[in-house]
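The following block was generated as part of the benchmark described in Methods. Ligand: iron/sulfur cluster.
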Amino acid sequence: MSTTASNPIATATVATPQAPPAFSCGSGDEQELGKYFICAYPPFGLWKPDAADAARSVLSSEAKSSEVLGLYVHFPFCVRRCDYCYYKSYADSTHSDRERYLDSLDRELALYSEMPAIAGRKVKFVYFGGGTPSLLTADQIRKLLDSVKRYFPWGEVEEATFECAPDSVHPDKLDALKLGGVTRISLGVQQFDDRVFEANGRVHRVHSIERAYRAIRERAFPTVNIDLMVGLVGETDATFQHSIERTLTLEPEGVTIYQLEIPHNTPLYRAVQDRTAAVALAPWDVKHQRLGAAMRCLVDSGYALRSAYAAVRDLERDQFLYQDAQYRGADLLGLGVASFSYFSGVHYQNASTVDEYYAPLERGELPLERAYALTREEQMAREFLLQLKLVRVSREYFRRKFGVDIIARFSPALQEFRRRGMLTWDDRTLSVTMAGLPRVDRMIRAMYLPAHA
Ligand SMILES: C[S@@+](CC[C@H](N)C(=O)[O-])C[C@H]1O[C@@H](n2cnc3c(N)ncnc32)[C@H](O)[C@@H]1O
Ligand code: SF4
């Protein structure tokens, strides 16, 4: 893997007038390696194979839920794996590997569309993530979109997101996406620094970001979101600030900034553990400061906070239904290898290798691997903890849906976070402050129900 020893990580803050207050697992004793970002609750480690029957049972139920329904479609192929990436993805796939995968997705869609709890329900949002879905050819993109629409008519789809990596964006693919009804492009830019790309095993370069962005803009997709990362190997305050400024010149509708996490199954983790190379990594407090400074910079430039990690030009127009609906208890069917779903209060995950994913589908069965059936109390905690990421939580929503006052229910932890300046609230809304924003996942973890702590 590529590493850098020549780019020391500067620790002075840029455009951060005040350092955020210390946190119990803050600088000094924060674990530097491992998972950080919380994307599901209860945590994956508690999902078990013997609970998969609970998923089959809710899917076979004749009762139709009134929740919003959405689809996540995973495409697990990339040109090469970035050193920090832990998502399910294979490098060096062939055209026929991708064809076989699309055929399996078609089978999975067909099986779902016939399940009693799903048949006839209308889909409101679709998300194509990866991996690198933009590796598909224009013909394959049409085939994939046609498959989804064959089983889940798109009449009521309000948002369809497609993840793109700059190198694989081409005009004919964009035309297929636009004509096929994709409304939101999520472009994985990460930074504007070729040396940082090189140091992290990232394939694209700055010139391809600009080429891809122009081509996307020419097709007038309603929303273009740029994904950035903070804390990459070789990054400094100055290079990161430069990336924010370059992003602002493109004027995307949305900007999302992820703090680098280094889970165990990544080449970067192994390089750090084995000390096989000198790796210059920013500690968590530096990542928090850079993220905080970047969010302030976006707000000063006219963006509004949509979540702890994302800012948009217009909160009304640039919503992100995929996230908002999930955090409010929507049913989400996750298709493809290793995808996870949430349906009628049951979380479950698909088989985690392509071979284990293909085999059951070829027998006409869903490729379920493990699951967790949530109690009503756990559903309430799940929605509250995930909604904290959206920066503003309505107290009335929880009173109405669960008969719970969240302030009473999650004190004294909430009181303590308020004392530290990370949260505030009034009668209607609980809000994460600018100081709390980069640490929201740590706050969430501290409020897990005792059985999940
Ligand atoms: C799974 S990627 C899919 C998009 C596309 N493959 C790409 O990399 O541009 C979605 C986003 O996750 C973020 N990401 C990936 N690995 C990460 C890590 N170790 N820590 C934090 N964010 C990460 C990146 O910002 C990336 O754009
Ligand atoms: S391109 Fe995206 S999905 Fe693929 S390895 Fe890199 S971060 Fe992971």
